[in-house]
Amino acid sequence: MKNLLSASNIYKSFGEFHALNNITIEVPTGSVFGLLGPNGAGKTTLLRIINQITMPDQGVVLLDGQPLKPDDIRHIGYLPEERGLYKSMKVGEQAMYLAQLKGLSKAQAKERLKFWFERLEIDGWWNKKIQELSKGMAQKIQFVVTVLHQPKLLIFDEPFSGFDPINANLIKDEILRLRDEGATIIFSTHRMESVEEMCDHIALIHEANKILDGKLIDIKRAYKSNTFKVGLLPTNSENVQSILNEKFEVTPTSFKTINEEIQYNIKIKENDSVNDLVHYLTSLGQLTHFEEVIPTANDIFIETVKNN
Amino acid sequence: MNHLSLIIKREYLNKVKNKSFIIMTFLSPLIMVGIITLVSYLSQLNNDTVNTIEVLDESGLFIDYFEDTENLKYKFITGVALIDAKYASEKSNNYGLLYIPKTANIEAFSEAITFYSEDSPSLSVMGAIENTIEDKVNTLKLEQAGIDSELIKELRININTKLETFAGKKTSKLGSGLKLAFGGFAGYLLFMFIIIYGNMIMRSVIEEKTSRIIEVIISSVKPMKLLLGKIFGTSLAGITQFTVWVVMIMVLSTIVSSVFGIDTGSVQSQQQELLVQNSGGESQQIITDVMMEINNLPMANLVIMFLFFFIGGYLLYSSLYAAIGAAVDSETDTQQFMLPILMPLILGMYVGFFTVIENPHGTVSQVFSYIPLTSPVVMLMRIPFGVPLWQQILSLVILFATFMATVWFAAKIYRVGILMYGKKASYKEIVKWLKY
User: ipTM score here?
Assistant: First the structure.
């Protein structure tokens, strides 16, 4: 798959402080790319470099195979984490101004704003002052302004902060729709459930270094621990655990079912067959529940960061 | 529409539509005209009362020598004892009582005269009285010495050197002052503009930071364009306001003076009268001199250069304020910067008044008329004395180039300032900023 954006060997330091240390990321065209990392890891700095707000000390950023040039800002929509609006301006005026700064003509800006305002059900706000808006309302306008010029690369830094669940969902659907229409999306967030839902690729940055990247599904495969969640109604309940302990790594667990079975997490060795495990378990009693434990993005995040 | 004009338009409309801006635009002229009207009304009120001063002249030398003026009447009383006169004067609400005793000789007058009054008398009244007495006493002394005072007056000769350039242009001593006035006027106007609108530019540059929109803006516009747009937009708003002020003050003072019959110009005209009086009866001569000087000035050159230097100077100082705005995070950090920025301008004024007038084409004058921070004042003061066009243009080029350089530099600070996380900037770091 072709990469829309690739940043290679990016270094950036502020004085003595190294913000980015040899970071390389590849963002495939049409993907939703999650840029993850703990607070202060360097995510925002990397996004600023992609947006040409700051320059890297070393390294190149290619957009569509070409080095970034000032004019490329027209192809990028950036919703920074630190975002505000001119307080004294009216919503419509402001949106028109920002849209025109992005290179839209007056007529184009008006038409598209009308479309988006209706879509996000904010068309009554045109003449409101920004001061009158709540944080979530202002966020919607910022979102509209970010995507208005139909850039091929959209960058969202914590897009869901300040939204209630309904609006967060609305924005999530809009982002995915934009992806389906051909945009490539980079987004940075701490909300792992949205990473799970939306991202197909991720990169994890920790203390200026990239410690993990790739397709989310590949990463999950790599991180799986061959552990299975098992529910069992044993024929002889007395020494089931000790029998199992001899053969496998067993830890008690709990999940909700309608049976009163014993619940275990059972880890098998890398080369052991799952069929053998199932076979063995059925010999001990009635198997009511069998499921592979797939690591969540959250687990992977915590584990990787802790290990580094 | 390109970015710059978009930004200028937004800045301009944003300023002009601001409520407090509108209020100040229309309120300030009202307040100003109101104050001027009040002052001239009060001074007229003062002028209307006629004060009476009683004079008890026991020496008999000064009878009817004091001349009444519009506001001051002298009443001579005779044959009364001092105590009674004082008592009567106090009762009758007079301004005061001037007591001139009989003295052994004329010299003794210097210490013998007393003025009694309720409150301390005004300086101008005392001055008038003392002048009159001195005048009389001196005449008396001259007479005693057998000298005719009239003869002395006749013998006194007033020298008035006529000035003419080698090229045959007639000039006068007034010329130098008049020439400086043009530069001084420009300097003064620049001063006012910067004081009134410098802060506005600074605030406008900080606006993006306080409203946290900076990253959104800066990812679509180059900081240089943003700052230029802010400087131009705010300046245009300032010019709009200033124009409204001038027009409104003119209209209002015309209305006030015609409706209420109060001459708002009377305060100034009194001073002018005083000036003319002080220079003796040569007012006619002065006026012709002034006219001649004005005719001699290279008016076209001056007016055009005034515009260019004024605009250039204003833009340069604005860009300094923009640079400060770019470097700080909030408005509270900016207060202390007001004065240091104005210092070079003040220096320019001093150089103009003390150096240019002595030697308009000397080294100091020349150097300062090229230094961009002082050239708007100094060069404008030099131009009336005749400066080659190439020098004027060179100075202008330096001025505008410095303006652009300052904005460019401010843009660097601006971009880096938001992203530095409060880290101290080393020299290496600054060089790196500049490269970017």
Answer: 0.79
